[in-house]
Amino acid sequence: MPDFKKPHALTDAVMHYCPGCTHGIVHRLVAEVLDEMDIEGDAIGVCPVGCSVMAYDYFNCDVIEAAHGRAPAVATGVKRANPDKFVFTYQGDGDLAAIGTAEIVHAATRGENITVIFINNTTYGMTGGQMAPTTLPGQITQTTPYGRNPDVEGFPVRVCEMLSQLSGVALAQRVTVIDPKSVNEAKKAIRKGFEFQKNKQGFSIIEVLSTCPTNWGMTPIEALQRVKDEMIPYYPLGVYKEGAIR
Amino acid sequence: MTKEMLLAGFGGQGILFMGKVLAYIGLYDDKQVSWLPSYGPEMRGGTCNCSVCISDDPIGSPLVDEPDTLIVMNQPSFDKFIDKVVPGGIAIIDSALISSKCERTDITCFYVPATALANENDLKGMANIILTGKLIKETGIASIETVRETMKKVIPPRKANLLEANMKAIEIGMAQ
Amino acid sequence: MAEKTLMKGNEALAEAAIRSGCKCFFGYPITPQTEISAYLSKRMPKVGGTFLQAESEVAAINMVYGCASSGIRCMTSSSSPGISLKTEGISYIAGADLPCVIINVQRGGPGLGGIQPSQSDYWQVTHALGHGDFHALVYAPASVQEMADYVSKAFDMADKYRMPAVILADGLLGQMMEPVCFPDTEIKMSDASNKPWATNGHGHKRPHNIVNSLYLKPDQLEDIVRDRFERYEEVKANHSEAVVDYCDDADVVVVAYGSTARLAKSAVEQARKQGIKVGIVRPVTLWPFPVQQIKDACKNAKKVLVVEMSMGQMIDDVKLAIECSKPVHFYGRTGGVIPKPAEILAEIKKLGGNL
Question: Is B3 on the interface with C (CB under 8 A)?
């Protein structure tokens, strides 16, 4: 039977996330992995700018709040200072795939021995639902009021596919958290990422297709359905790269 | 007393190394010294110059605009700097590479075919050191012993076998 | 003290950083400071440190942010255009109360500017090194020996006050060689001891640490900024530095910093020989600005002359320091042109001969 106690690696702080948002689930999965591997005391999280900007209040390990997009560079600094500690970033799609593209690509290609949790919800949540680099063609957002037109705004970025081309990447896997089965899969992937890190086997990224009911203008249930109907077809789940880099 | 020396030529002729030798000679004598290279976007073949000051007092400007001692190893540097030498100063000119003669009468010019001498003596690439030998002779800034000690310091360990060749180049320069 | 050796300013600074326990360096190539990276890429692996060439200036300063959060001494270096890129990270470092050392070997600007020596980043480093209410310690060395000495001091002061410290040099100081010697001390890489705030893993021995500059409640943010400014007051009261020469009887006082100060000092000494009563003040700390030292040095002067390799940036702070009590003149060259002592002497004579 699953144990529904709060993981030790989560604090008692009440999360600020909207009803139906899947950030809470992913936080919990990360915390459960920290607990199960017994590494909370050796872990340093690096949080982004975006909805999860205040994750430093939610994780019980040491946490650094980074500037927008810079978490992989900050994590690099932490890891180089303390190569034996566990360092992870927790980043959204605007943070990782727009303003922080250079940082994520170069951390990945260096084979920086860190684990990246990447939340893809196809929008900038915190600022009120603007177009993200991951916004789907035709998707209406605050800054694509007529729907994202690839002729004007270009195409969405498929991050796992892109990073899987780099030699420094040990794990690039896309998961989601829309039902118990996918939540279990997501947790396994996150654990795998931390295991790669533990064995100093290279950079790992776990992309989590997530919901933003508020900015999508949907109920939580509708939002979960959208992930299935619209996001997964464009962003197929699965392992894009797996194996130690050295 | 302050000596303000300017060394100029093409990149690759060993202008900066020549400066380093002179600066270390000053350091060996417990003088104040400074060495300042020109730096630019060219890596090879561009013009290159180097200011070296040796002084009894702290050095204000390490940049030498009006040298009392000039060494030039190419025509553009001769054209550019020969008129900058202070009256009473000296200029040492690699006459194997520079055909011009200085028309000034208020400075002393020495024409040393250093590049040709280097080639004749199996010292290819050491024209700069031959000119340094000439400078040492004309300025009297150091004894041959000091030069040898300095060379030991300046020549990187992986090139230590070149010490004698360098000393030979110095001697050839001093004999000019 | 060990034997004197000839080193470029950039290299002396890099060696001194290692000797100060700087364990990690993150940089990006830019003229005229690249020797710092080249030197450290050779030396760091041999002393158990880390050299990492970052993908950008922005990444480099954020690596510093991460490393400094871990309580480890770290450094980045750049030249003017690169510092502009780093200002985002510097602001976060200041906002999170982290110690680190940042080197700016200035070149001419604005824009891509040039690569020759300049002092046109004074406003940036003292007044706007990023967004928000904050300061960084700023040291302006004037010799290769000082490049070494002040990097060491910068690390100590950054740690003491938990704030970024900047060495403001220029291409002249970075590229020139002068004799330098280092104290005979054993090289010891820094660790996080004495930094209880470091995010280096709590090991279940303390509550979790957070390194952060986000405070959404205005009152809370105001309190934190006010606390920080109280610390700044302590720095201002105790740690401003200036070198004063020949000012007791001076009719004209020259104010100049960094490499310009040594050029100006030559001019001042020549003027003295010609019987002109002139002195010189060299601010060594640009923040905190040595207000009292300048005020005292100019007490008996009739005129002040500020000399900079810029169109005149520090001059405003000099006027404030002496409360505009006497005329403050300016002489400057910009764009990478180095003023000659003779030019400065001519300016002194103009003022000194016309009292």
Answer: no
Angstrom distances, CA of residue B130 to CA of B46, B91, B124, B161, C241: 22, 14, 11, 18, 47
pLDDT in tens, B121-169: 999 999 999 999 999 999 999 999 999 999 999 998 999 899 999 999 9
Dihedrals φ, ψ of B131, to 5°? -65, -35
Nearest to A168 by CA among A118, A117, A107: A107
Over the stretch A112-121, which tens digit does the pLDDT of each residue have? 999 999 999 9
Q: Is it the case that residue C289 has pLDDT exceeding 90?
A: yes
SS (H, E, C) A45-97: EEECCCHHHHHHHCECCEEEECCCCCHHHHHHHHHHHCCCCEEEEEEEHHHHH
What is the rounded CA–CA span in Å between residue B110 and residue B90?
Answer: 8
B73 neighbors B58 (Cβ within 8 angstroms): no
Reported as a pLDDT band with limits 50, 70 and 90, residue B45 is low
Residue A149, CA distances (Å) to A45, A145, C114 in order = 36, 10, 42
Residue C355's Cβ-count burial label (10 Å; 0-12, 13-18, 19+) is exposed
Nearest to B35 by CA among B7, B12, B14: B7
Q: Is C42 on the interface with B (CB under 8 A)?
A: no
Cα–Cα nearest to A63, from A45, A48, A40, A83? A45
Mean pLDDT of C114-130: 97
Q: Per-residue confidence of chain A (246 residues) as pLDDT tens digits?
A: 566 799 999 999 999 999 999 999 999 999 999 999 999 999 999 999 999 999 999 999 999 999 999 999 999 999 999 999 999 999 999 999 999 999 999 999 999 999 999 999 999 999 999 999 999 999 999 999 999 999 999 999 999 999 999 999 999 999 999 999 999 999 999 999 999 999 999 999 999 999 999 999 999 999 999 999 999 999 999 999 999 998
Type of residue at A207? E
Can you tell me the ipTM of this complex?
Answer: 0.96
Domains of chain B: residue spans and CATH: 2-174 (3.40.920.10)
Contacts of C115 in chain B (CB under 8 A): 39-41
Structural domains for chain A: 23-242 (3.40.50.970)
Please give the Cα distance from B24 to B20 (Å, whole number). 6
Whether residues C178 and B24 touch (CB distance < 8 A) is answered with no
Residues 22-51 of B with CB under 8 A from C: 23-24, 27, 32-37, 39-41
User: Domains of chain C (ranges plus CATH)?
Assistant: 5-195+226-237 (3.40.50.970), 242-352 (3.40.50.920)
CA distance readout (Å), B123 to B159, C263, C308: 14, 40, 46
| C338 CB within 8 Å of a chain B CB | yes
* Residue C39 per-residue DSSP state: H
* Interchain proximity C177–B61, CB inside 8 Å: no
For residue B88, which phi and psi values (nearest 5 degrees)?
A: 90, -10
CA B27 vs. chain centroid, Å, equals 16
CA nearest C180: which of C206, C218, C158, C151? Answer: C151
For residues A212, A216, A221, A225, the Cα torsion angle rounded to the nearest 10 degrees is -100
